[in-house]
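Technical annex, item 7. During the second reporting period the consortium partners agreed on a shared format for inverse folding records so that results from different sites could be compared directly. Each record opens with the tokenized structure and is followed by the designed sequence. A conforming record, contributed by the partner at site C, is shown below for reference.
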């Protein structure tokens, strides 16, 4: 543990679109934020959130030709750095928000801060199949809004039986020639209105009591193998896209018992703002949003958090 803790006016935890937008804004407000950006994962060589797992992003305004997810995050980071944000490529291990200054620890360093912006994001739950994460952006997707457009006229599948899976399947019928919903049980968990919508859609087919057990194709998804959960029988399904919609997990373990959160783990913020229940601690991006989950909405809420934070700091002096 470091002998003396480095002090910052603003400490930002997380480096996706929300955290980095908060960094751009607070840096431009001369608050010299430190971004504790996380560590590279097993699938990415840089931190930067879910966009590091995406290939082309076509719906981020300002990039009419599209831009690769990692390049977009690289640009966000460069822009924050240009105005004086600094970065630490480590993970936060522990926080203490019970007294002033607020305290944050990585594995071997301690920091104190007047204010903290939490932008730790969320992750899509995955099936846990071999090469699943390698194929994200190459036929496997966790976001229909982001990637549906790439599957025009193609046959695709959606895994899951909840509201998200139905919503994604219905949305995907705008592009795909056929959408097969794969569910591990024989009835959807989704609400009645969503179930009715799925059943009424002629482009949606169902594979009940089925689990995906294999992803075929090397560089690009070429099909999947299903296992019948009742008979154990295996079957091939020729699809060029697989959308995984089995739920999301916000990255909030660190804040358990520290910040108010929903039962599902999403942080609670005061309506129309980024204020959490702890004064001086703000939350933005997917860690507090289970509805929109888009890079642009995360960036927008990162801007809100920076402005809330800046004004809150001003009022302290
Ligand atoms: P969810 O309700 O937890 O549903 C997850 C689905 O994935 C379930 O059908 C579950 O199967 C299946 N599943 C989980 N793990 C699996 C695995 N390893 N392999 C195969 N299947 C697996 O999650 P969600 O659909 O993301 O919804 C989350 C919350 O947001 C819900 O409260 C939902 O109502 C809400 N939401 C609402 C709307 C809307 O109203 N428009 C849209 C989206 C989400 P089982 O059913 O067998 O457990």
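Designed sequence (site C submission):
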């Amino acid at each position: 543990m470091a002998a003396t803790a480095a002090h910052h006016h603003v400490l930002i935890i997380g480096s996706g679109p929300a955290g980095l937008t908060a960094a751009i804004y607070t840096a431009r407000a001369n608050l010299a934020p430190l971004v504790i950006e996380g560590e590279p994962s097993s699938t990415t060589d840089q931190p930067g959130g879910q966009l590091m797992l995406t290939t082309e992003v076509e719906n981020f305004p300002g990039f009419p030709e599209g831009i690769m997810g990692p390049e977009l995050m690289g640009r966000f980071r460069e822009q924050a750095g240009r105005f004086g944000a600094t970065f630490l490529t480590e993970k936060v291990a522990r926080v203490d928000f019970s007294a002033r200054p607020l305290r944050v620890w990585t594995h071997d360093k301690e920091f104190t801060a007047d204010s903290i912006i939490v932008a730790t994001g969320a992750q899509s739950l995955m099936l846990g199949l071999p090469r699943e994460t390698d194929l994200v952006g190459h036929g496997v997707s966790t976001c229909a809004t982001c990637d549906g457009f790439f599957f025009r006229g193609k046959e695709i599948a959606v895994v899951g039986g909840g509201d998200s899976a139905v919503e994604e399947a219905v949305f995907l019928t705008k592009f795909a020639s056929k959408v097969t919903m794969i569910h591990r049980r024989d009835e959807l968990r989704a609400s009645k209105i969503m179930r009715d919508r799925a059943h009424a859609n002629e482009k949606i087919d169902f594979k009940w009591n089925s689990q995906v057990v294999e992803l075929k194709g090397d560089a690009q998804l070429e099909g999947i193998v299903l296992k019948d959960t009742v008979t154990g029988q295996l079957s091939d399904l020729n699809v060029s896209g697989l959308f995984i919609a089995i739920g999301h997990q916000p990255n909030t373990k660190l804040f358990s018992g520290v910040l108010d959160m929903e039962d599902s783990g999403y942080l609670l913020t005061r309506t129309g703002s980024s204020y959490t229940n702890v004064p001086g601690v703000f939350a933005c991006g997917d860690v507090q949003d289970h509805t929109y989950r888009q890079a642009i909405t995360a960036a927008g809420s990162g801007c809100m958090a920076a402005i809330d934070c800046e004004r809150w700091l001003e009022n302290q002096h």
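The domain at 140-244 is CATH 3.50.50.60 (FAD/NAD(P)-binding domain). The first helix runs from residue 17 to 28. All partners now use this format for quarterly exchanges.
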